[in-house]
Structures are given as C-alpha cells and as structure tokens.
Amino acid sequence: MERKHKKWHQLIDYCSRLPPMPVAIAHPCDQSSLEGAAHAAEMGLIAPILVGPRQRIEAVARQHGIRIDAFPIVDTPYSQAAAAAAVQLVREGKAEALMKGSLHTDELMGAVVRRDSGLRTGRRLSHCFVMDVSEYDDALIITDAAVNIAPTLEEKVDILQNAIDLGHALMFKEIRVAILSAMETVNPKVPSTLEAAALCKMVDRHQITGAVVDGPLALDNAIDPEAAKIKQISSPVAGRANVLMVPDLEAGNMLAKSLSFLAGADAAGVVLGASVPIILTSRADSTMTRLASCAVAARVAKARREQTKNVG
Asked: What is the longest distance spanned by two Cα atoms in the chain?
C-alpha cells in the first residue's frame, strides 16, 4: 500500500464495510460529479439519490458511459430546485448526507440554511479539510478554510467544537487542537492571539469539550516537536497537533492548498453543523479525494446515528 494514500485507504476500507450511506446528490449534471457518485457507490460507500433534470443526467451518463441504472432519480427542472429537493429528502429521512453536484455552492448552501425548510441546528456551519500528509503521522483536520470568512470569537466556538466532533467521528485516539496565529505569545496588537487565549480558557471552563486545546501557536511549533522544544513550549499539543484551527478563511485556504500543491497532500472535505454532513466536491477533485470525502461523511453519519441511539 503506497504511503501517500495510506490514511485514506484505511478510512475507505473501513467505511466500505458499513451499510452504504444514502446520499442526496444535488444537480449531478456533469461528468465529474456523476462519475464520482457512481465510483463511491461501486466502492460501497454511498447509495446515491440523483436529484436534478432527469434528461440532462441521463444524457451525461450516456455520453461518458457511466452506469446509473440502479440509482433513483428525483426529477427537478433546474439547479436551485434540485438543491431544495435534495434538502427535502434529508428532512424526510430518505438521505443521511448531501453532496454537491455541478451547481454553485451558494445554491446548495442557500437551501441548507433556509430558516423554515433547511437543515439548521443550533450550531454554526463550518468546513473541515481532512488532510493526508504523507510525512505526518496523523491525519490533519484544518478548519475553517471554505465557509466562514472572518469568524467572530462566538462563531469560532462552534467551528472548534465541530472540528473536535469530527475528530471523534474519525476515531482519533486523542484530539489535539492547535489554535493558530502568527506567533505563540498573546499580543494585544494581534487579535487572533487574544481569541486563541479566550478559546483555551473556554475549554478550561468546559464551554468547549472533547479535546486538548492550546493556542496561540504558530504553525511550526504546532506540528514540529523540535520547533516547540527550541521555543520552550511545554504543552501536550505543541509539536503534535492533529487539528489546526486557523484565524480566518484566507489563512486556512492558503494552508490547505500549500499542503496539497507543495507537499502533495490529499484533502477530503466536509461541512458540519447542519443536521447531516455535506460533501462539497469540486470539478478539480481527484477520485481519491471524492472517495475520501464520502468516507469522512459516512463516519460522521455513523457517529450521529450512534449518538441518537444512545440518547434514545
């Protein structure tokens, strides 16, 4: 097994032995989204429900030789209607996750956050990348690099808790969160260091639970034990973080893409905070990324089923 994809192969192999997760796929009207759904179904990860214009979906399948005979199709006239219908399938209990097809992200998320007919919970929605960096022992969760542009401290509480919950769903043995900034000291002139310190105190007061959290930390002393040692940072997180919380979307996006394009990392992604996990795929995503994203969502859905069962 190649080292580059070892973490993903393990995750996909585990999830392929679970019952396939019913997924409403909104507007899968291009080759990449339809092929990705078919491949994930072939691997036993998902049971796709295709939501969109039937004639367009079937035409794309014929053109590219994609087998969709076994997948139900909910016929809708256009992309926004597909997003609304996909959300409704979740509300009716017919799907346990959403997947973005070839529509714009804003169209899908608009249907998700609609007050009366969406999938809101008490949590703010946030995105997590789950990175497979070959030279790093653990999978790395990076949040938020895709949804919240400049989150407030209040919003960061939900972003952090969503990421911690994802770590539990992925069965991390210990969740070690580094709240990143440009430095590891609290500096009133750098607001992200103040917010990091406040979040750590909220962990101390059990307002945020389920992980060991430290910050502010710079990226080097968050993931490199030698850098943490040189700077004399005594912390169970420093040098061995497996969750990286960034100060804003720009920092997170650049960090995730740097790992992907300079370190050859694979990046699965999922949106959390709604009543089901949401898979935001891109036309540029590799097959491995699409499969890993489905597997991550399957783990989240399984954890929620178990939590509901325990509560009941």
From this structure: 63
Residues contacting residue 2 through CB under 8 Å, at least 6 positions apart: none
Measured at the CA of 200, the angle between CA 152 and CA 160, to 5 degrees, comes to 50
Residue type, 234: S
List the chain residues with pLDDT less than 50.
1-2
Provide the pLDDT for residue 67. Answer: 95
- 8-state DSSP, 20: P
List pLDDT tens digits, range 103-134: 999 999 999 999 999 999 999 999 999 998 88
Separation of alpha carbons 12 and 40, rounded Å: 10
The whole-number pLDDT of residue 2 equals 47
Roughly how many angstroms between the first and final C-alpha of the chain, as a whole number? 41
Task: Specify the DSSP element, H or E, that contains 141.
Answer: strand 140-143
- What does the alpha-carbon distance between residue 110 and residue 113 come to, in Å, rounded to a whole number? 5
Region of 43 (left: φ > 0; alpha: ψ -120 to 50; beta: rest) is alpha
CA distance 281 to 54: 21
What is the distance between the alpha carbons of residues 264 and 275, in angstroms, rounded to a whole number?
Answer: 32
Q: What is the pLDDT at residue 311?
A: 63
Is the bond preceding 19 in cis, omega lying within 30 degrees of 0?
no
d(CA 85, CA 29): 15
Q: Where are the alpha helices (H) located in 17-145, listed in sequence order?
A: 31-42, 54-64, 79-91, 105-113
